[in-house]
Amino acid sequence: MAQPTMDDVARVAGVSRALVSLVMREASNVSDRRRQAVLEAAAELGYRPNILARNLASRRTMTLGVMINDLHNPFFAEAVDGIQARADEAGYQLLLATERTGRSGQTDAIETFLRFRVDGLILTGPRLPTPEIRAAADTCPIVLLGRTLRIPEVDTVNTDERIGARLAVRHLFDLGHREIAHIDGGRGAGGPPRRAGYERAMRELGLDDAIRIVEGNFTEEGGVRGADQLLTGGTAPTAIFAANDLTAVGALDRAEDLGLDVPGDLSIMGYDNTAMAAMHHMSLTTIDQPREEMGRIAVDLLLERLDDDRTAAIRHVATPSLVTRSSTGPPPDPRQLQSDP
Amino acid sequence: MAQPTMDDVARVAGVSRALVSLVMREASNVSDRRRQAVLEAAAELGYRPNILARNLASRRTMTLGVMINDLHNPFFAEAVDGIQARADEAGYQLLLATERTGRSGQTDAIETFLRFRVDGLILTGPRLPTPEIRAAADTCPIVLLGRTLRIPEVDTVNTDERIGARLAVRHLFDLGHREIAHIDGGRGAGGPPRRAGYERAMRELGLDDAIRIVEGNFTEEGGVRGADQLLTGGTAPTAIFAANDLTAVGALDRAEDLGLDVPGDLSIMGYDNTAMAAMHHMSLTTIDQPREEMGRIAVDLLLERLDDDRTAAIRHVATPSLVTRSSTGPPPDPRQLQSDP
DNA sequence: CCAAGGCAATAGAGCGCTCTAATCGATTCG
DNA sequence: CGAATCGATTAGAGCGCTCTATTGCCTTGG
After folding, report:
1. Which of A134, B138, B160, B244 is the most exposed place for a label (fewest CB within 10 A)?
2. Distance B31 CA to D1 C1' (A)
3. Which domains are assigned to chain A?
């Protein structure tokens, strides 16, 4: 199991270790003859460069750390797709970890990454406290994806959640809805701005009095509870704007259990345009975020700090868009609405 | 940005580098006085061990490579949860990658892992050719999860897919179904054994003549097509056993589009018990695999090879179980069935 | 014909850590 | 009281690579 080293290759090829190193790094000024000799020797021995040694010596790891908030949330999986693609192109490796990696509590994920001397860090929707992020930021460049943070040391990539929320409200308004309620995302990343966007959009439309928010938590169960609250007590809204797709699915469940037809009796909107929303069986109207693109941009921002040594923070804000499916439609006939008290 | 090294800490603490090393590795025979001095110096300087140097010197990385077949498939996410948990306990780090990591085509994921000198490798549901896996296996221990491979160098962790398939068929049989069709998984990992299990179970029940298989591919779309084939041409089955949950969802869609009530007119079963199946709105009867446990076991197998230097291959086969939800029920009244010619 | 220049190849000093063997006091014991 | 013992500490040789400076060698031009 003892693996061959560069010295072994050098010996077999009859050259110096330095020359082998040059060949491995694909340096330009090596004669074809020697290069061949080295490559053949390497192949013969089954030589495999030791990345650790290389990184130690070069003080560059060509590796980016990616912290995934939640492996189960398709939003992150798709953002990682973009990160992966761009990192590949740029010749960077990825180290993935979930927020709870590392020996339970002792060493958190960020610390682990820094010990590995990653060249840069992408944190997707991290729940981490600001001081911790700031502390890490003076060791290596950091990009936040899906969370805002106004400190100069880190770049951020987001969509404008308020615009997204407004798109949702407008869509429902245009269909004729006036009683539009919101099941929010609590304090989770994206929750507050989506809620704020909802409120603002309602006011813009003169629907101040119809503003109605119940608490959610970005889970299906939260959607079930929120919908229950909205639909069983007093006057029910004609449309529900949920903070994310999962919440919308929960609301959908509850609505159907209550015998309501969606979108006949009630329109429901999600947010994120996850694969789930696209499933024919769900067919959720929702707000799309260009996740892959956001992932790519996050890598680009890192590379700019790394290669072009930019130091000013950049806040990239992508534009969300409406995806219309079949969970929304015109509100029911007003007569039916009133006949319920 | 120049990070402090062990020598810096040693200087500040007034001890040798070797002693700092001992403290960092939590060695036992260091006096409390010195230990304190070292820890204080380290804290003061903001010292952070360089894992690369450590790994290089110790020839152990305490890192396991995990190749994830598909980041979007919840099955793998949950298996990784188990792997993560167990690795944490054992003090191992995880390096995750998807099968298509690495500079496009040049260096595949496995090679990358080996260059990083991971101590062990877990491949979840890999589509990789056998020779490649075998080649990697003589460099470091390998465990396959969710795929069988009968070569002595690698351990495997699976569920007995045939038993799982039989559970599904029996469940439907017990409900009264006789016309039970199968939408298979093609050549994807798990596809063939599930199909074989279906066939065998049908025979055991004397339903040889009712065996009916259409092709699928583990996707929703495959489910839609498969269901279409089964439900629109000639005599329709009363129950469909789909190769996985996604396929089942597709079948569900198609069935509902055709105006069939599930489970009133048609029962549908999935496989995997993904979070999707559990969603209230879907509520799919399905076969559960203990994914987290499988993940933990995979790590254990690796550790046995690493620490107890076991060399004989182990094939762990977990037991699948039936999860009954509301997509299955008794077949419709026979009279209705016949009235369709 | 010789100095200057250019290119290919190499020597050798690290990178920051681990780990074996050696050292050094302080005890213990015959 | 000197030898043996033992725990705490240290010296120093790597781990496998990169990278700067340097060495040769060959071409070129004056």
Report:
1. B138
2. 30
3. 6-49 (1.10.260.40), 63-160+291-319 (3.40.50.2300), 161-288+324-338 (3.40.50.2300)
